[in-house]
Amino acid sequence: MVNHLCDLPGVSKSGYYYWLNSSDKRAERDRNDWEDFQLLYRIFLDKKKCGIDEIKMALETEYDVVMNHKKIRRILRKNNIISSIRAAKPYRKMMKATQENATKKNLVNRQFDQGIPYKVFLTDITYLPYGSGQWAYLSAVKDGATGEIVAHHFSTSLKMNLVYETLDKLNNVIKDMPVMERYIHSDQGVHYTYPVSRKK
Questions:
Q1: Cα torsion at 141, 96, 137, 175 (round to 10°)?
Q2: Per the count of CB atoms within 10 A, which of 14, 57, 124, 197 is most buried?
């Protein structure tokens, strides 16, 4: 009977049994996808129909959930949700700063090399793609006078600890040095204007 039924649509017998045996796995994947979709859709609405990058960042920073771009896109499309897809650097539109967040006056005025080591520091976060749609992040601090990287920290998450760990390492480098006025120059993104970062 199976041979006859498979012959009608031109399906191989082995293909039929493979489909039959994998039905439980498909059902489990559908259940997992539906659970993930509930969270993705909540973020999609809360962020006013934001893009894939913003959804991924919200998952990591607000829900401590790691999910790659490919999976987010697949689940949204599976449920007929269209989200904007930005091909440029991920998280270009970072989280909007809260009311507590505030930028600081530019005291350095781009005079990064003032001839004194460990006086002016430059810091930024570099995005490093790897695997299948995955990202790692490097937070680094460079001495404006020597160009030396004096502190850095790697992470697979963009949570605030990425910056906190970097600043703690910088503090360990300079804590025994003579007291002097020092400056840290950044792009003043959300990681650097967040209140705790400013206090550090």
A1: 30
A2: 57
Is position 115 within any domain? no
CATH number of the domain within which 135 lies: 3.30.420.10
Element (H, E) at 171: helix 161-174
Q: Is 38 helix (H, G, I), strand (E, B) or coil?
A: helix
Asked if the model's pLDDT at residue 188 lies above 70, the reply is no
| Per-residue tokens: 100 | 């507590």
Q: Is residue 95 part of a domain?
A: no
| pLDDT 10s digits, 46-80 | 877 678 888 888 888 888 888 998 899 888 888 88
Rounded to two decimals, what is the model's pTM? 0.43
Tokens of 157: 């998450």
Q: What tokens appear for 132 in the block? A: 């299948």
**What token pair was written down for 170?**
């910088």
The count of structural domains within the chain is 2
